[in-house]
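Lab notebook: predicted structure, single chain.

Context: the supervisor wants predicted structures on file for every construct in the current expression panel, including those that have not yet been purified. This is the next one on the list. No modifications to the sequence; it matches the entry in the shared construct table.
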Amino acid sequence: MPTQHKKTIAHFGASILGIPKAASWTWRIAAAALVGVLSIGAAAVVYVTGGTSFAYSHVAYVAIIAGAAAFGLPGGVVTAVVTSLFLGPLMPLDVAAGIAQATTNWLVRGAFFVLIGGLAGLAFSIRDRQLHMIRRQSYYNPLTGLANRTRCLERLDQLIRSGIPQHSPLLLLSLQIGQLETISSSLGHEQGASLQKAVAERLKRVLPDDAKLFHISSGVFALVVTAPQEEAAAVGSALVEALNEPVIIDGIPIRSEAHVGLAQFGEHASTSLALLRASLSALQDATAAKQAVLVFDHRRDDARRARLRLLPDLQRALRNSEEITLHYQPKVALETGVCVGAEALVRWHHPEFGLIAPSDFIPIAEQTELIRPLSERVLSLAIRQMADWHTQGLPLSLSVNLAIRNLEEANLPAMILELLERHGVEARRLEVEVTESGLIRSLDEVSTNLALLQDLGISVALDDFGTGQSSIAYLRDLPADSLKLDRTFLRDDAMANPRSRLLIETTLEACHKLGFSVTAEGIETKAVYDLLRDLSCDFGQGFFIAKPLTEAEFRAWLIRECRRGLCTRK
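Prediction complete. Output recorded below exactly as produced.
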């Protein structure tokens, strides 16, 4: 880690607060005093009630068990010995008659005291160890040994009650390791766990001794800071910088890209739990925006909450046949300009909010079980639409986007086959699209279903090609028939760059040699269209050709194309 970043973090050492150790010695003194009083009290009770010949000597067990409860095995034995001495040579057998005890009498009683004290102490010691283990599991992450989310909230509550926010800004800094899920799925969960432990050790090394790092969830760490936002952000940046150097796991260098979210008590939240939620919300925004550090923003958070509030409405919409509809973006053969099909794009017509963009509800649906019925609705509408077109002499193909969670469903191929057979549509007319990044991340889980779909004759397209981490060499192992070249390849400034043109030309040539057809997305100008056609790109779609259209608009557009001689043919 660079020296300047070590200095940055060390500068705020006094502001990064840890958990103080409990002053247990005061409790121990109080407990020892209480046990002593009980032992002396037991001796006094025995003497007052007439001596050891009476049953009152058993009251000594109260002190012995109290000593065992307070100090475990040593406490039980020591208390038993001390109490047996109190009831020993100086304690009469009968106070009124003045009869002294025989030596064997108090020695045997003392032996029983020690036996009971030892057993009770052993039992309490075992109990204490188990309670300690339970407490540690409740308050510490078993993987890294760091204090966990519960302990972090307790620390925040302690600082809030102490009045720290009135004297200094109180912020919570959340840091997340990037690509942990991908690393775990690619290398194994043990390697993912090793990465988290290595990151925790690195963070602890660069933090001051008085700082306390919390491990609040898988791959997410937290730090409590009392400093202005700018200074806390500098701490966050330094921590991110500390993780820039690769971590070696099983001999493999892994770069653990990190992001940080910041939230301040008072400005962004009024409770410890709300502060943690705000910090994690900022962390989510930082990850999505690929920013090293972001401060909580109420507007972004409100937008996310608004999308979440749409979930119950989406559930209702899936039961209403009129709210979920499809738009169709034409797909043409670039060489001839003939329309060969379209991409089916879902639209939600909310009765209160009007047309809701897919980006506002699909990501949320993908995180819930609603993605399954939503995808089934889209597939059903698309296949039924193809059937209608085919009966009218328009043998168009349709592409439908599927989420990775859909492809993990074991019954997906059977469900699609049933829809095709019900509507009498040939399987070769349907194409399913899956994003490149999603496919690579979950290839092992979805490859079987993709192979089954291909066996049925359904085409599989790799969407957004070029935005993920695959290479041309990797394509030979992907279960796909075609690729969709991402629109980032096709910006006007990129197309004017000879190196960008060479990259596109090389990519197209390699894909064709590997047996893939290629569709270019986002064609917005005639110059881009002509260039892609000259480079032998197979198909294209984009606003230059046509925007996404309702079924009626698509039909009108298709009629105009037919008049120009560019209508699809059987």
